């Protein structure tokens, strides 16, 4: 059925992506702690609880569509997480059909100890280590892409200078 995607669906997309993100860290990035990462989406040990989510809708997505969800850890975990038991994710939900973001979410997530029935006092070391590595990778990629954008802008400016920004350039509006 073709129709409007209900707003609550975007929150479900973000939640599913967060679960996949956690499992993928354990499976592909930190297999030494796979069991701990996988148990974080359950309620048996240290788990993730969504404290709050803010969704900024960009356009009304319609079904059928395929989506891709990107997540970014914010802010720098070295200063932010060292004394807290929470972290934030910035989430972008991309419409494949329209090739643009359909929503942007900001998630506040609490690490919760289900055995003690309270927030964790400290972020487990295996989580902190991976978050630090992720943050460094995110920063390197941001620098790399910023340089790519600068290079493209410089090439466009060179083309402009060689064409319509020349002193002898004449605008051709066609014939009347």
Describe this structure in words.
This is Thioesterase/thiol ester dehydrase-isomerase. It comes from Penicillium olsonii. Residues 135-162 form a coiled coil. Keywords: Coiled coil. The protein is an alpha+beta fold and 176 residues long. It has one domain (3-162): Hotdog Thioesterase (Thiol Ester Dehydrase, Chain A). It is 40% helix and 28% strand. It contains 4 helices and 7 strands. It has helices spanning 7-29, 34-39, 77-80, 125-162; strands at 3-4, 46-57, 62-63, 67-74, 86-95, 100-113, 118-119. Strands 2, 4, 5, 6 and 7 form a 5-stranded antiparallel beta sheet that branches. The model has no long low-confidence stretch (mean pLDDT 88).
**Low-confidence parts:** none
Element string (H = helix, E = strand) = EHHEEEHEEEH
State Rg. Answer: 22 Å
Give the CATH H-level superfamily: Hotdog Thioesterase
Q: What is the CATH domain class?
A: Alpha Beta
Count the domains: 1
Overall shape = elongated
Characterize the largest beta sheet: strand count, sense, and whether it forms a barrel: 5 strands, antiparallel
Short summary:
The chain is α+β, with helices and mostly antiparallel strands and 176 residues long.
Keywords summarizing the entry:
single chain, 176 residues, alpha+beta, Thiol Ester Dehydrase, Chain A, five-stranded antiparallel sheet, two-stranded antiparallel sheet, 4 helices, 7 strands, 28% strand
């Amino acid at each position: 059925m073709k129709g409007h995607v209900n707003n609550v669906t975007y929150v479900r997309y973000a939640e599913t992506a967060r679960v996949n993100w956690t499992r993928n860290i354990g499976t592909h990035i930190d297999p030494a702690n796979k069991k701990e990462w996988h148990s974080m989406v359950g309620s048996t040990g240290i788990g993730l609880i969504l404290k709050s989510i803010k969704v900024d809708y960009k356009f009304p997505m319609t079904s059928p569509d395929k989506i891709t969800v990107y997540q970014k850890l914010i802010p720098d975990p070295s200063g932010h997480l060292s004394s807290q038991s929470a972290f934030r994710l910035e989430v972008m939900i991309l419409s494949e059909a329209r090739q643009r973001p359909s929503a942007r979410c900001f998630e506040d997530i609490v690490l919760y100890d289900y055995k003690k029935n309270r927030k964790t006092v400290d972020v487990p070391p295996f989580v902190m280590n991976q978050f630090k590595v992720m943050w460094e990778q995110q920063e390197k990629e941001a620098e790399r892409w910023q340089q790519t954008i600068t290079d493209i802008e410089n090439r466009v400016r060179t083309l402009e200078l060689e064409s319509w920004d020349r002193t002898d350039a004449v605008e051709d509006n066609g014939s009347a």
